[in-house]
């Protein structure tokens, strides 16, 4: 998801007279070839499950993640239903952007836990450090820091996932999906399945302007400016932290249908950009420091590294921006991708079309963990 609205040209980046520009962004029964499915907007829930009327609950809490000499409060939610059947757990990780939040997964989480099947699903949604409702300290954020967070979250004995069994499924959006796949390829985490929803790998500026040495130096200058004590807030307020900019993002490339962008959504996302330290992660994301890889070849290679190891669903979207769509489509025939589907939406389908996304995700879970038995 784009995290800012800028005009940056290769010849005059950071010119005092810049204009605005909107960069576009970016199964356990193993299949011999990836399935390719185009999801319908008129899905039949009865084919995979029916809704359970058992009482459900949502619990919120904070986990203290220790990174070097800094302790960071990490916000998370747990969604489950009353059941005598031991639960199987899903970790849901939000898409990385300046308005990243657990809110984007909440409707999907509530939908899935109410399904009736052989498995009693339980979900945990976690905000990234520096984003959402988590603390936002002034760290030198990069892809390695975020990967380290994921590894600690999934492996540390004191994490909110420590009391769960080892059969953890991970759903991630955008960069979150690719960071999860990267950590899994390295063997640092061992989920039993991964769903990559509208996966991306390039930040807003690199995907538009590239990564030559001249551009990298300009990204560094912009990043340093955004992190500066006084001028940083001024620039962040102009470029990101205002309701017009956020609304423009959502209508141009975050949502597929601009009519789905409500005042309530804009107001709640605007409030997130006003939290203390809000500009630090966006400064890194915008300029490519959170990119898990540097090329499409590396991106495809990450998924290939999971072939025959972990079932992987890739969920593309019909209305994604052209450049991001091309990266998603590159995974259609990729090794390591067990199943490929397309759903409506742009860069945040789990928030814009939660019912459709939940149906496809549950179908993947059903095929992976129920049909095989």
From TrEMBL:
CC annotations in GO: chloroplast
Signal peptide: none
Alphabetized Gene3D superfamilies for the sequence: alpha/beta hydrolase (3.40.50.1820)
Name of this protein: NAD(P)-dependent glyceraldehyde-3-phosphate dehydrogenase
